[in-house]
């Protein structure tokens, strides 16, 4: 899963991970960071991007779970991304267990900074693909 996630880092057309009702003007987003870690039985996706499309994270999670279950090879992530076709990616992950943890804004907005969590992220180990 960790290896497959790296195909998404960078600036890409994320149409294959976009919901049909998405209202974003452009499917091109910059994914700065996507880290897959394990904490006991829990798998955590730490995803940071310039912006997200409707259901983008749920669709990324669905593809990663399919790869993690051994149903598809690691390279399938690249195929899904390059297809730019939503139905190529298969299942949209349920929203249960997916949490928005933090939103960061540019300094010019002068918003107060506050770390809101998650506090259980200590002691994670990188997954082996």
In short:
The chain is α+β, with helices and mostly antiparallel strands and 129 residues long. It contains 3 helices and 4 strands.
Give descriptors for this structure.
19% helix; 4-stranded antiparallel sheet; 129 residues; 3 helices; disordered C terminus; Alpha-Beta Plaits; alpha+beta; single chain
Write the layout of secondary structure elements.
Blueprint: H1 2-5, E1 10-13, E2 28-39, E3 42-49, H2 56-68, H3 76-83, E4 125-126
Antiparallel strand pairs: 1-2, 2-3, 2-4
Structure characterization notes:
The chain has a single domain (2-126), classed as 2-Layer Sandwich (Alpha-Beta Plaits), CATH 3.30.70.660. The radius of gyration is 15 Å and the shape is globular. The protein has 3 helices and 4 strands, in the order H-E-E-E-H-H-E. It has helices at 2-5, 56-68, 76-83; strands at 10-13, 28-39, 42-49, 125-126. Strands 1, 2, 3 and 4 form a 4-stranded antiparallel sheet that branches.
């Amino acid at each position: 899963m960790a290896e497959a996630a790296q195909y998404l880092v960078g600036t890409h057309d994320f149409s294959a991970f976009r919901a049909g009702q998405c209202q974003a003007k452009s499917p091109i987003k910059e994914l700065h960071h996507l880290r897959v870690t394990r904490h006991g039985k829990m798998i955590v996706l730490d995803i940071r991007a310039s912006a997200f499309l409707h259901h983008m994270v749920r669709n990324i999670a669905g593809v990663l779970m399919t790869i993690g279950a051994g149903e598809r090879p690691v390279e399938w992530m690249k195929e899904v991304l390059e297809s730019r076709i939503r139905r190529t990616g298969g299942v949209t992950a349920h929203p249960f267990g997916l949490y928005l943890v933090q939103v960061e804004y540019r300094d010019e907005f002068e918003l107060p900074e506050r770390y809101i969590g998650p506090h259980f992220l200590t002691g994670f180990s990188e997954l082996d693909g």
